[in-house]
Design goal:
- With about 280 residues, the chain is α/β, with parallel strands linked by helices.
- The protein contains 10 helices and 9 strands.
- The strands form 2 sheets. A 5-stranded parallel beta sheet has the order 1-5-4-2-3. Strands 7-6-8-9 form a 4-stranded parallel beta sheet, with helices on one face.
- The two termini are about 25 Å apart.
Length: about 280
């Protein structure tokens, strides 16, 4: 079953009156306060705002964590309860930035054992192109009492140093190669990692590549794969692409590059290893 929902399917579901929960995951990596402004300016009717830093991330510990560490189990459970999410809820997530933030939310919901989650293919742009309405009001939902158990889907830096796994770096090739680094204090990549720029999972119109195309993209990958990126966000996009391709989900090195470089003894590579995917 595909993890995507098309715009026509979402329109049909919303018009049917079905009880679905929609999360607006739009964010701005350069201005965290702009995320709420984007939401309040207009969102899919009924959508709840899912803020990358406040809801989909935990507290940053300088010199120790990534720029977007995962929240604790208790914090994530509290957020899900506030949104009224139950284990059997039907959830649709979307953004307007290549589905990068929506993919993070999708992964985190599955991580918590919530399985009926779909990513809107094409995001808000597809909704607007279909001439569907926006609303500016903030919906309220009855809180839930959901109790979650997180799946063992996360790899630590120490494990990554010692496990025989294939590593995929979701960042753009120049960042992976160490030619530029706009966000972190050190440039390069984790030794042995292959470059798998997450943006290549998409067509030019912002919709995902077909299942067959994504299966071909990752056909050389092993069964044991770990995905990472700059801070654990766009890596989830590659995990989503594996799901679309009907492949077993890779594990996530959630700390990613921004955590890796906090320990000076961890090795750093530059240049290009292997053939970029």
């Amino acid at each position: 079953m595909t993890p995507l929902i098309s715009i026509s399917e979402l329109i049909e579901v919303t018009q049917s009156g079905s009880d679905i929960i929609i999360l607006d995951c739009r964010s701005d990596l350069t201005n965290r306060d702009n995320a709420i402004n984007l939401y309040l300016a207009g969102h899919i009717p009924g959508a709840i705002h899912a803020h990358l830093e406040d809801d989909l991330s935990g507290p940053i510990i300088e010199g120790k964590t990534s720029r977007h560490p995962l929240p604790s189990r208790d914090a994530w459970q509290a957020t899900l309860r506030r949104w009224g999410i139950q284990k059997d809820s039907t959830i649709v997530v979307y953004d307007q930035q290549n589905s990068m933030f929506a993919a993070r939310a999708w992964w985190m919901l599955l991580w918590a054992g919530i399985n009926n989650v779909k990513v809107l293919d094409g995001g808000l742009d597809a909704w607007l192109k279909a001439e569907q309405p926006l609303e500016e009001t903030t919906p309220t939902r009855t809180p839930s009492n959901i109790d979650i158990k997180l799946k063992d889907w996360v790899i630590t830096a120490d494990q990554l140093l010692n496990l025989p796994v294939q590593i995929l770096d979701a960042r753009a090739l120049p960042r992976y190669a160490g030619e530029v680094e706009p966000l972190d204090t050190k440039a390069g990549h984790i030794p042995g990692a292959l470059n798998a720029d997450f943006s290549k999972n998409l067509q030019s119109n912002g919709h995902f590549q077909t299942s067959d195309a994504l299966a071909q993209r990752f056909e050389q990958c092993d069964d044991q794969v770990v995905c990472y990126c700059g801070s654990g966000v766009s890596a989830c996009h590659n995990i989503l692409a594996f799901a679309i391709a009907r492949r077993e989900l890779p594990k996530l090195y959630a700390g990613s590059w921004s955590e890796w470089i906090t320990v000076n003894s961890r090795p750093i590579a530059s240049g290009v290893e292997g053939t970029p995917l």
